[in-house]
Amino acid sequence: MATWGYLGLQDSASPLMEQLIFFHDHAMVVLILITTLVGYMMATLFFNTFTNRFLLEGQTIEIVWTVLPALILIFIALPSLRLLYLLDEVNNPSVTLKTIGHQWYWSYEYSDFLQVEFDSYMIPTNELPEDGFRLLDVDNRTILPMNTQIRVLISAADVIHSWTVPALGVKADAIPGRLNQVSFLMNRPGLFYGQCSEICGANHSFMPIVIESVSVNSFLNWISSASEA
C-alpha cells in the first residue's frame, strides 16, 4: 500500500501491474530524453549570438524534426497497444467473484460456491484496532487464492462506483444495470488495499476495498467454513 511521501507506484502483486510499471518507466525515459533535448536547444537559442543573413530554409532539419517525433510516438504506441490488449484478455478463470457497489459499501458474492456472500464496510475510526489502517480497513476482507486466475464481475445497485486495487493493476467502473469484467492473477500473498475511484456521494471516501491473497489450501478451508456458516 502507499505510504506518506511515497511518490512512486505501488509494488506490483500481479503480472499485469508489473507490465504497467515497465511501460510507465519506458514512457518516462522517452519523456526525459525529449525534455533534455528540447531544453538544450532552447538554452543554445537563448545564449547564441550568431546570426545567418542568408538562411531562408532548411529542408533537411525540417524532415528530421517531422520524422523523429513520429518514430518516438511509434515507440510509445506499440507497447501501449500491446498492454491494452493484455489488460482486456480474459483467460479461463478458476474463481469468479461478483462485486456490487452500494452507497457506501461493497458486497461480494462467490458465484462458484453456494450461499457465500457478504457485505464489506469500512471500520469506523473509533472501532479500529491499534494496527489498523484508518479509512482503509474493512470488517470483512475479500479472500482470494494466489497463483489462480480470478474473474471479477462488477456492477452497482444505486449510482456509479469504481472498483480499484492499484497493486493488482485493476480498475473498473461499477455501473447500475451493467456488468463489467476484469481478470487478474495474484503472484504473492498479502493484503492489497483499494478505494472507490468514482465520486459517488457524501461517503465516497469511506468505502475501501481489502483483498487478502492466501494459498489455495487456505482459501478452500475458508470457503468451506463460510459455506457451512
What are the SSEs and their pairings?
Layout: H1 15-47, H2 59-88, E1 95-102, E2 105-110, E3 117-120, E4 142-145, E5 149-156, E6 161-165, E7 170-174, E8 180-185, E9 190-196, E10 208-214, H3 216-228
Parallel strand pairs: 1-5, 4-10
Antiparallel strand pairs: 1-2, 2-3, 5-8, 6-7, 6-9, 9-10
Features:
3 helices, 5-stranded mixed beta sheet, Helix Hairpins, cytochrome-c oxidase activity, 229 residues, Immunoglobulin-like, 10 strands, alpha+beta
Your description of this structure?
It is a single chain. With 229 residues, this protein is of the alpha+beta class. It folds into two domains: 15-88, Helix Hairpins (Orthogonal Bundle), CATH 1.10.287.90; 95-228, Cupredoxins -  blue copper proteins (Immunoglobulin-like), CATH 2.60.40.420. The chain has helices at residues 15-47, 59-88, 216-228; strands at 95-102, 105-110, 117-120, 142-145, 149-156, 161-165, 170-174, 180-185, 190-196, 208-214. It has a five-stranded mixed beta sheet, with no helix packed on it. A five-stranded mixed beta sheet has the order 4-10-9-6-7. Its cofactor is Cu cation. GO terms for molecular function: copper ion binding; cytochrome-c oxidase activity; oxidoreductase activity. It catalyses: 4 Fe(II)-[cytochrome c] + O2 + 8 H(+)(in) = 4 Fe(III)-[cytochrome c] + 2 H2O + 4 H(+)(out). Residues 92-225 form the Cytochrome oxidase subunit II copper A binding domain.
